[in-house]
Design a protein that fits this description.
alpha+beta, five-stranded antiparallel beta sheet
């Protein structure tokens, strides 16, 4: 995306590996900005990078009015063309974010609208004959209030006072079976407990996890968005041990730890961090 002196472009940046584009220099956030953002990823031991992500450009003053946006999409490998789905989702968010963010909709409905646009575009790709799908997590932070939305098994964590809390719910077969067991309903044994039950590109999409009431963030909080290549390799304690320094320091440390683990068949791994430095 080319940036003019008046900075009229949408205040979000796509990930370079997913698009293969040359990204412009991102200006540092203004002194008054209470947030910093960091991001990092690795292809792991896979042949292609099917994770995509985007983050707001905090050097653009529009963050004050629109809020800080971050999203991660992880291609569903079992369907093929995962990179097509994840990049389609991120490009759709970029194309629609400004108009939706400037609307009078509450934050949680803005995320629903963004997700609906991304779903529609991925379905168009499917209808054209290229079968693809991706998980999707998205967070919007405005005035230290957090709204999030998720599909699939990527995770959104809140790191506060040395603790780590997963905010979203996994959409996988195993969780559905566990619920049926708690409710004393008949179980259908299924060895594919980790199979994803909700994702962009699913024609009958019904499962959407989101918060209706915003979560109030505090100074010192860090919000972590990551694909399963991260938390599938690192334990909660290992992730927490990486949360230090700037948001970029944290993202770098997490991906460095994933690479150092040297797991056989390591999946693509992506981490986006929003650090709350002060209160608004």
């Amino acid at each position: 995306m080319n940036r003019s002196s008046r900075r009229q472009d949408p205040p979000v940046q796509p990930t370079t590996p997913a698009y293969g584009e040359t990204m412009p220099e991102i200006a540092p956030p203004p002194d008054s900005c209470p947030y910093t953002i960091g991001s990092a990823q690795t292809i792991g031991k896979r042949k292609a990078q099917e994770d995509s992500f985007l983050t707001s450009d905090l050097g653009n003053q529009e963050w004050k009015r629109r809020g800080v946006l971050a999203a991660v999409a992880d291609g569903v490998g079992g369907l093929g063309n995962g990179q097509v789905a994840s990049t389609t989702a991120m490009r759709t968010l970029i194309a629609n974010y400004a108009a939706i963010a400037n609307s009078d909709l509450p934050a949680e409905k803005k995320l629903l609208r963004l997700m609906a646009h991304a779903q529609a575009e991925v379905l168009k790709v499917n209808n054209s004959g290229t079968r693809c799908a991706c998980t999707f997590i998205c967070a919007l932070v405005h005035d230290m209030n957090l709204s999030f939305l998720s599909l699939g098994d990527s995770h959104i964590y809140l790191c506060r006072a040395g603790g780590l809390l997963q905010l979203n719910r996994d959409h996988v077969l195993g969780d559905a079976e566990d619920e049926r067991e708690v409710l004393n309903l008949p179980l259908t044994p299924n060895p594919r407990r980790k199979a994803i039950t909700s994702f962009l590109g699913k024609a009958d999409l019904r499962q959407i996890d989101r918060n209706v009431t915003p979560i109030r963030l505090q100074a010192g909080d860090s919000l972590l968005l990551m694909s399963d290549g991260v938390f599938g390799t690192l334990s909660d304690d290992e992730i927490i041990s990486c949360v230090h320094g700037t948001a970029q320091d944290t993202a770098n440390a997490i991906i460095k730890a994933v690479v150092a683990a040297d797991v056989q068949g390591q999946d693509n791994a992506t981490c986006v961090v929003i650090a709350c430095n002060t209160t608004c």
